[in-house]
Design a protein that fits this description.
Blueprint (H helix, E strand, L loop, with lengths): L1 E5 L2 E4 L4 E8 L6 E8 L6 E6 L5 E3 L7 E6 L4 E6 L8 E9 L14 E2 L3 E6 L1
Parallel strand pairs: 2-11
Antiparallel strand pairs: 1-3, 3-8, 4-5, 4-9, 5-6, 7-8, 9-10, 9-11
C-alpha cells in the first residue's frame, strides 16, 4: 500500500491550497481516508476525514474553510483549503484505514497506512 501526498507549498494568509493523496494497493472504496497535520513541537492532529459512504468530519479549527473529497475512480482523496491562516502551517499527512466507526474517525491509531507528508506554510 502506498499513499503519496502532494500539493503543499507556501501561501499568504487568506490564500488557498489543494492537497491530493494518490493511493495504490488499497481497497480504496472501502477505506476511510483522512488528513492529519503536525506542526513543529506539537503532536499530530486530526484535520478532516471522509468515510466510505462519503460522510465527512472536520476539526473545529478548519470547519467552514477546508473541504475533503474523494474520487473512487482515481483512488485519490483531496483537501481543499481556503482562507488559510498562519496557524495552519504544518506538515500534512494523508492516512487510510478500514472499518473505522464514526466515533473513532479522529483517532490517529485507527489508521493503518500513512503518506509521507507535504509541507504547508502560511505566511502572515
Amino acid at each position: 500500500v502506498q499513499l503519496q501526498a502532494s500539493g503543499g507549498g507556501l501561501v499568504q494568509a487568506g490564500g488557498s491550497l489543494r492537497l491530493s493523496c494518490a493511493t495504490s494497493g488499497l481497497t480504496f472504496r472501502d477505506s476511510s481516508m483522512a488528513w492529519f497535520r503536525q506542526a513543529p513541537g506539537k503532536e499530530r492532529e486530526f484535520v478532516a476525514a471522509i468515510r466510505w459512504n462519503r460522510s465527512t468530519y472536520y476539526a473545529d479549527s478548519v470547519k467552514g474553510r477546508f473541504t475533503i473529497s474523494r474520487d473512487n475512480a482515481k483512488n485519490t482523496v483531496n483537501l481543499q483549503m481556503n482562507s488559510l491562516k498562519p496557524e495552519d502551517t504544518a506538515v500534512y499527512y494523508c492516512a487510510a484505514g478500514q472499518y473505522i466507526i464514526s466515533s473513532a474517525i479522529r483517532t490517529t491509531s485507527m489508521y493503518n497506512y500513512w503518506g509521507q507528508g507535504t509541507q504547508v506554510t502560511v505566511s502572515s
